[in-house]
Specification:
The protein is an all-alpha fold. It contains ten helices and one strand, in the order ααααααααααβ.
């Protein structure tokens, strides 16, 4: 990359957008290979999950409705109960399989993209074969960071859920109670966004530095200081894009009554948009990491990068993704999002 690392600290929101696009287009061949092998399957899994989940859940609702109008103790009631039990088992197993594959491809995609950009910024030779040889070596570090991040999100939601319940429990739905609930909910969302930002950056830290897990999150928290506004703006942009694509897919494909041709066309459009957003999100996330490093004057030596050298020697690794995110998109949005 011809941009000096000292200049990265001055990049704002538009500068990071431009830098991310420049990286993707300047190295379009290797990013196309990464997209075809990892990000396209990730995008397909995400959209297919929406369609299949809706189909399975609607069958459950229909059978539950039929069960409600069936007299207990009859053969028909017993048969419907057995069918419902089987459908719930299939639904839950499908969810487990979905989150497993989503997590795997998320970690692998992140590994590939982060390692690639690290090589670009440190002027190291990079090939698709080298990237794919590194990817399997890094997922364990990322997985540990994911477990810590996800656990923090779960605990955060439990604690804030209790606080959100208190105004309703003591004040009911009075004007004061609703006002307090709204304020607490806004604070909850702000906290959730902050945790997601730290989570995202911690994933990159886990790949490029000698820490992972809770230590990576602490390092991420320190790095993001001074660039919080830019990180929040980028997170909100990517989140809105993901939500928009998801809504378009649900309205135009999942719940649509239009012709199959139109539904297939909208599905393909959502698929194309989604993998572009995933790729751009991973690139932008890594660029933000280097911007934060430059801002805190923690430049990486292009001639003797510790992490890159380790990869070349085959002793460690580089990589990561989010939700965004879907994890968090889901909790990332929160997993991601993850959660997604």
């Amino acid at each position: 990359m011809d941009r000096e690392q000292e200049e990265l600290q001055f990049l704002g929101f538009s500068g990071i957008l431009k830098e991310s696009f420049n990286i993707i287009f300047s190295w379009r061949k290797i990013f196309s290979q990464i997209t075809l092998s990892l990000i396209l399957p990730l995008s397909f899994i995400f959209l297919a999950h929406i369609q299949i989940s809706q189909y399975l859940f609607m069958n459950i609702l229909d059978d539950q409705d039929a069960l409600n109008y069936t007299r207990p103790g009859t053969p028909g009631y017993a048969k419907l109960s057995d069918i419902l039990t089987s459908e719930w088992i299939v639904f839950l197993l499908f969810k487990v399989a979905y989150f497993t594959f989503l997590l795997i491809f998320s970690l692998l995609s992140t590994s590939a993209v982060v390692y690639t950009i690290a090589c670009i910024y440190t002027a190291k030779e990079i090939t698709f074969k080298k990237v794919m040889s590194v990817v399997p070596k890094v997922w364990k570090r990322l997985f540990v960071t994911f477990l810590w991040s996800f656990s923090i999100v779960v605990v955060y939601n439990i604690i804030t859920g209790l606080f959100l319940f208190l105004p309703v429990a003591f004040l009911g739905l009075s004007s004061l109670g609703v006002a307090i609930l709204v304020v607490l909910f806004i604070l909850y969302l702000a906290g959730l966004v902050y945790i997601s930002l730290v989570w995202n950056l911690a994933s990159v830290v886990s790949v490029l530095e000698d820490v992972y897990g809770i230590k990576a999150m602490k390092k991420s928290k320190a790095l993001i200081k001074g660039k919080m506004g830019v990180a929040v703006a980028m997170f909100l942009l990517l989140t809105l894009c993901l939500i928009g694509i998801k809504m378009l897919f649900e309205i135009g494909v999942v719940f649509a009554w239009s012709s199959p041709v139109i539904r297939i066309g909208i599905g393909i459009l959502c698929f194309l948009l989604l993998f572009k957003v995933f790729l751009f999100g991973l690139v932008a996330e890594t660029v933000i990491y280097f911007v934060c490093k430059s801002y805190h004057h923690e430049n990486i030596d292009k001639s003797s990068s510790l992490i890159i050298s380790r990869f070349i020697l085959g002793s460690t690794f580089l990589s990561r993704l989010r939700i965004s995110n879907w994890s968090s998109f889901m909790y990332k949005l929160n997993l991601f999002f993850f959660i997604q």
